[in-house]
Write a structure and sequence with these properties.
Length: about 170
């Protein structure tokens, strides 16, 4: 009987450590949907997202999209960026996710087979392979979203998920 409380204590401590460890099983990623990721939604204002502690400060964006383009970094547990409209009030037009979230359980580091299993109506676009070294996997609205998965050709692994589509700059 003396050992029983000790065993329970060790089991409880082990479970607590597993939950506290970054990337540990049991920690749920945010969900990526056609409307956004976690609490960051398309159409939300930069002010509301900043006040909620979801994004960092606005920074100048890609010049190819216009002279007044702005973006902000997502805050932990998410990794990535948020693109905004060029006019005030600034509203979310796109989200680039590099970690901390999954779409139907598929996220950064997974493979094309995982996308196909979760999104059977996916469309593979290989035109970007020779230019950018990436394969774009488009999920149409009728197939569960308006999402793009980006797969690095060299590694055959997902490097980002973009809502509603990947954007190219540079």
């Amino acid at each position: 009987m003396r050992n029983r409380p000790l065993v329970v204590s060790l089991a409880t401590a082990g479970a607590a450590l597993a939950l506290a460890a970054p990337g540990a099983a049991g920690l749920a990623d945010e969900k990526i949907t056609p409307n956004g990721v976690g609490e960051v939604r398309l159409g939300a204002t930069a002010t509301a997202l900043r006040d909620a502690g979801l994004i960092g400060p606005l920074k100048p964006g890609c010049e190819l999209e216009g002279p007044n383009t702005r973006f902000a970094n997502l805050k932990a547990p998410l990794k990535g960026t948020v693109d905004f409209t060029q006019t005030e009030p600034r509203k979310v037009t796109g989200i680039h996710i590099r970690g901390g979230a999954t779409a139907r359980g598929v996220g950064v580091g997974d493979k094309l087979a995982d996308i196909t299993a979760a999104f059977p109506k996916r469309r593979i676009i290989r035109a970007t392979e020779p230019i950018f070294g990436i394969t774009r996997v488009k999920i149409p609205k009728a197939g569960g979203g308006r999402l793009d998965f980006v797969i690095r050709v060299e590694t055959k692994r997902i490097t980002s998920v973009d809502v509603p589509r990947v954007r190219f700059c540079d």
